[in-house]
Amino acid sequence: MLTTLIAGTAAVSAWAGFSAYAGLSYESQLFGRSLIAPPEPNQFALTFDDGPNPAETPRLLEILAQHRACATFFFIGDFVLREPELARRVHAAGHAIGNHTMHHPWLPRHRARTIRAELRDCNRAIEDTIGAPVALFRPPHGARRPAVFRAAAELGLQPVQWNLMVGDWKDRTADDLFLRLARGIAANRARKRGTNAVLHDGSQQGLGADRTATVDAVAMLLKSLPAGTRLVTPPQWTACDTVGANPAPRR
Q1: Which of 91, 95, 200, 201 is catalytic?
Q2: What are the pLDDT digits (tens) for 182-229?
Q3: Active site residue 95
Q4: Same domain, yes or no, for 6 and 77?
């Protein structure tokens, strides 16, 4: 009896560990396939979650434009409805826009119908606002389970994770964030991988979040990327321009 109980407890613990890794590790593909980064060390994707945010997104757009840099914005649907002009401005600037759910819930805790509604309603909010289809999806906190992948597939959405997170939602300086980004890019290059960095131009808590340090760090990073770095957007990882010492002319 005791042996059976111990074995059962061990099995439960093992399953819990497996589920945590499969559903939370950014690189896990066990519950479903997610884009992370290609084996192209010079490719770099800047991605921003939790916008659009009127307090920071406009200045971020200006900085990206100055460097002819493309980025991917994963929008919260509720914020899109409250800031439609800003969402349209991001789209008009040529950046990719993805689905980050309607209200930013922890998806694995919810029933399949709630997960579908979160993705469906966010898609509608974005598509009705910008007049273009949405093809990308990033689950809040990167948390997922099979029902999340099924809902994304039903809507034709490609899940996107990351391989560089610098904790810019914490109380960090721009210098600290810049160093973390630079080190992360170098580490991915050493692994012969491209970099897919997740940053935040907004906050799940509401509009008006102060992301000054993030925006400043992005400005510093774009000035210092090695020559030959290619700014890309998933899923095609299509290069916009070469940034660095000798940026290529826009085609």
Answers
A1: 200
A2: 999 999 999 999 999 999 999 999 999 999 999 999 999 999 998 889
A3: no
A4: no
